[in-house]
Specification:
Blueprint lengths: L16 E2 L20 E2 L7 E5 L15 E6 L25 E6 L2 E8 L4 E13 L2 E3 L4 E5 L18 E3 L12 E11 L11 E9 L2
Antiparallel strand pairs: 1-2, 3-6, 4-5, 6-11, 7-8, 7-10, 7-12, 9-11
Keywords: Signal
């Protein structure tokens, strides 16, 4: 899983002013009230801040996070954990062994900040899960979010997956066009299908985009 962090562009204020002048008379002339016009122009640039794992607002940085899954088989229907070695006797019905999954580093903090309107997030398989010549589709890994306002996107088998929308608003915002959302994403491995033994490694990248 890749820790994705987009560069932050700070808000820029660019005022431009244009003024006029007027005078009023005194003495026996009728009293009048002068008025002048002053024009303002303010430009506010868009920004997007997105992180998964370490690194925090407002400074981009951090390192790529590592999510691990260790699968341990057991022999039905004792269950008995297989041991390394030759000529080891064990009762076995012959059915496929189930696998217990031990996860590490699979709960990661996620943060999105933007003033660019609707924020969308999607996942892309940068490197497939591969061990030698054997590959596991990346959608064997799934992700869930602790907050529906910042959902985790579907993980595709390969390529780029479909996007999900982040709900605008959040603590510290002035309206729904500004987004400040945080959540924890939990990654899990779907162990329902038997796989060839090996050490598989791959990489995902996540992207936050605005219109």
């Amino acid at each position: 899983m890749r820790h994705a962090l987009l560069p932050l562009v700070l808000t820029a204020l660019c005022p431009a002013a244009q003024s006029g002048s007027a005078t009023s008379g005194t003495g026996n002339l009728p009293r009048n009230t002068p008025a002048v016009a002053l024009n303002f122009a303010i430009q506010i640039d868009k920004y997007v801040f997105f992180r998964i794992g370490d690194g925090a607002w407002p400074t981009p940085g951090g390192t790529t996070s590592q999510v691990g899954f260790s699968l341990s088989p057991s022999i039905p229907a004792v269950p008995t954990t297989p041991t390394n070695g030759n000529n080891t006797a064990v009762n076995w019905s012959g059915t496929a062994p189930p696998f217990a999954v031990t996860a590490s580093g699979n709960v990661l903090p996620v943060e999105v900040r933007s003033n660019g309107g609707q924020v969308s997030v999607f996942a892309t398989v940068t490197t497939p899960l591969t061990s030698g010549s054997t590959t596991i589709p990346m959608n064997a890994v799934s992700a869930t979010s602790s907050d529906a306002n910042l959902p985790a996107p579907p993980i595709p088998a390969s390529g780029t997956g479909t996007s999900v929308n982040v709900t605008g608003g959040g603590t510290g915002t002035v309206n729904s066009l500004v987004t400040i959302r945080t959540a924890n994403w939990t990654f899990a491995y779907d162990n329902s299908v038997s796989r060839t033994a090996g050490n598989y490694s791959g990489q995902l990248s996540f992207t936050a985009s605005v219109p």
